[in-house]
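@channel sequence for tomorrow's demo:
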Amino acid sequence: MGTSSGTRIVLGHWQRSLFGAFSDVMLERADGDRLLLAPTRETADFISGTYVFDTVRVVPVGVSVTGDAWTVTAGPLDLRFTTGRRGLLGFALRTVPGALAGRPAWSALTDRPARLLLPGVRTRGSAGQGRREWYGARDLLPIRAVSAAYGGADLGAVAPVEPPVRFGFGSAPRNPSVTRVTTTVELGPG
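structure tokens (generated this afternoon):
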């Protein structure tokens, strides 16, 4: 999601991963400073080895979801947002089976349509430390309202993700949204 202050926020809320369930937050400020807020050194090292950040902080990260309302606390970040009704693309993505979404060949097949439908979005690419990464989207919900503060400073209302975030090989959709994604990371040599 974007905010009217120019801060863009990408929340990772992983129900299953190599590290168990965890959440992390990637922020890019209006001045281009990229920040990772991760719950453990292990997750911070893996994420910062895959994406690019100017600052990495290990802080408690908590996420609560009740219906369409999300509440996130991550060190100095307090974030609340609500999602809206699923659109046509969201309904189409919900038909993608999980086993198919996790296959790199599926991500390769969907990369061009994703780029056309959602400029800046890519479903495959190269990541840090020689890693390769694939995304298989399985749902999409619009974000309707955001309340966010960093270190007590209000970040403003919901806004487009503009300019695109620069953590990795692609950006988040321009329109603020919650996207359910199966992510595959192939580790590089060593």
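heads up for whoever presents: The mean pLDDT is 95.
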